[in-house]
Design a protein that fits this description.
The protein is α+β, with helices and mostly antiparallel strands. It is built from three helices and 18 strands.
């Protein structure tokens, strides 16, 4: 027997699913975007046309394709972990790595959140007990942090300052590299605790495991690369078509129910 409430529930659920599939497709070219998945268990467990009563939504943190860009500040994570970014009061997490320098700090373009790292001592050892902002401000003499002519980021996520000077005897340019920061990564045992705040920025009330890239369960960092979205276009299109079929089926059932109500009303009269 048809139920009006269940039919409306099913129609709304399938419409929401269709919208979600198209949103994912629209975000295909968004760097570091993770697909959002919505499932309505009753729709697919029962016969076509029955009502959906259980809605589930989750983010898929599967690996996206990693592409070389050559961008000086670009970084991609291969494997577990997220970059840690901050608004100055709270830490957030992202897989988006198209960072840029703004106001002397390395920031994520989405929200201008400052990238977090470990300070590195002269011997190259990071202080993994404390997170700091990545600052690379330039002084009036054109020097970064008052002493470096340039900086580079390597595949370990280490940001090193470059010092150049001319040898007074040989006249040759001598280049010295000093480690300054090492990008910190965060890992969550249960990614479902992450809440999407915007397209590629996530928050969590749970405390993450914070560590260095390539150490323990943390993934590796590839400099001058970016992780693309993990949107699987064929899968998204297939799911959208399935949702459309379900929508059509539930609409047909709803029309049948509506006709039954009309007929019953006429009999009463």
């Amino acid at each position: 027997m048809f139920d009006f409430y269940n039919q409306m529930n099913a129609i709304n659920s399938t419409y929401e699913m269709i919208n979600n599939q198209f949103k994912n497709l629209q975000k295909f070219n968004t760097i570091g975007y993770k697909a959002e998945v919505k499932t309505f268990s009753e729709i697919y467990n029962d016969n076509l046309g029955t009502g959906a009563v259980k809605t589930e939504s989750k983010t898929l943190f599967t690996q996206g394709n990693v592409k070389k860009t050559g961008g000086k500040n670009h970084m991609a994570i291969e494997g577990n972990g997220l970059f840690i970014v901050s608004d100055g009061e709270k830490n957030y997490y992202t897989r988006r790595g198209d960072f840029e320098i703004k106001d002397g700090k390395l920031v994520c373009p989405e929200g201008n959140l400052v990238v977090k790292a470990f300070q590195v001592d002269p011997s190259g050892k990071p202080n993994s007990q404390k997170l700091v902002d990545v600052k690379l401000d330039i002084d009036k003499n054109g020097l970064i942090l008052g002493k470096y002519n340039d900086y580079v980021i390597d595949d370990n996520g280490v940001i090193s300052g470059i010092i150049k000077h001319t040898d007074p005897i040989s006249g040759q340019t001598i280049t010295k590299k000093e480690p300054i920061y090492k990008i910190a990564l965060a890992n969550f045992s249960d990614p479902s605790t992450l809440v999407r705040k915007s397209d590629t920025i996530f928050a969590s009330d749970n405390k993450p495991i914070i560590g260095e890239a390539g150490v323990g369960a943390m993934g590796n960092i590839k400099s001058q690369h970016l992780e693309m979205s993990n949107i699987d276009i064929p899968s998204q299109v297939q799911q959208a078509m399935l949702a459309q079929m379900q929508y059509n089926a539930t609409m047909s059932s709803f029309r049948a129910l509506n006709d039954m109500v009309k007929n019953a009303s006429q009999l009463v009269r």
